[in-house]
Amino acid sequence: MSNLLAEGLNLAMFGMGFVFSFLLMLVVLTTAMSAILRRFTPSTAVAPKGYASSGRNGRAAASPRAGSNQQTVADDPRLLAVITAAIRKHRSDVK
């Protein structure tokens, strides 16, 4: 019985080690591919003139003159109309 238990533990450790090494390799390769793509792919997020560009986490980028010469949504009537129409459409679809 001891030999069977040892074989089971050996198989379990081998299986868990294989899964751990595979997941570790997957994380490393995914991180490397992400770094390569970030380096060679141009940034496609272009903010319209007068609007603050958002940072990596979606928050507005901090600048020394934040708020001094930047437009808001309320300053652009066309953008305000588009946003308002989108919200109305979304709310009408939900009901």
Give an overview of the whole structure.
This protein is mostly helical. It has two helices and no strands. The protein has a domain at 1-42.
Mean pLDDT across all amino acids: 79
Return Rg in Å: 26 Å
Poorly predicted spans? none
Query: What does the overall shape look like?
Result: elongated
Q: Would you count the extended β strands for me?
A: 0
Q: Figure out the total of helices.
A: 2
- Helix share bin: 55-70%
Order of helices and strands: HH
Tell me the strand percentage band. under 5%
First-last Cα distance: 65 Å
**Main sheet: strands, sense, barrel:** none
Secondary structural class: mainly alpha
Main traits of this protein?
mainly alpha; 0% strand; 2 helices; elongated; 95 residues
Summary?
It is built from two helices and no strands. By secondary structure, the protein is mainly alpha-helical.
List the helices and strands and how they pair.
Elements: H1 2-40, H2 77-94
